[in-house]
Amino acid sequence: MDRIKVKNCKLIELPVMQDNRGGCLSVAEGFRDIPFEIKRVYYIYNLSTKSVIRGMHAHKKLQQAIFCINGSCCLELDDGASSQSVVLNEPNIGIYMDIEVWHAVKDFSENCILIVFASDYYDKFDYIESYSQFIEYLDGHK
Fold this sequence. Notes:
Radius of gyration: 15 Å
Strand order of the largest sheet: 1-7-4-9-2
Shape: globular
Helix content: under 10%
Largest sheet: 5 strands, antiparallel
Structural class: mainly beta
Number of domains: 1
CATH architecture: Sandwich
CATH class: Mainly Beta
CATH topology: Jelly Rolls
CATH superfamily: Jelly Rolls
Order of helices and strands: EEEEEEEEEEH
Number of strands: 10
Number of helices: 1
Distance between the termini: 31 Å
């Protein structure tokens, strides 16, 4: 996977453990593998169509770590100055997104499953849901 160049984002690689019982095991622990206390976990699955786009927002305070644990998808990241598309297709490799990162997820494969670890409980006031408001918000916090 390419180096992450978008501000407030970084690659997370979870360890993969295998033994003689077969299969793989990966563990994500808060403050160890995930750089925050995990207060909420949600997952996205059973997408009705490959052309759906999820996300399309940024957060003022929330940190997230996103992994594609089955299938693949494309995560688009934007910090207002630079952007990057990242293909998520390995269940132990994800992306940490700190605050103020516009993100969208698209190009879902069949049976794609995303899991997201969040640093706080749901708060609708933490969301910036239009890109123009996102840019205005960033300009106001420089």
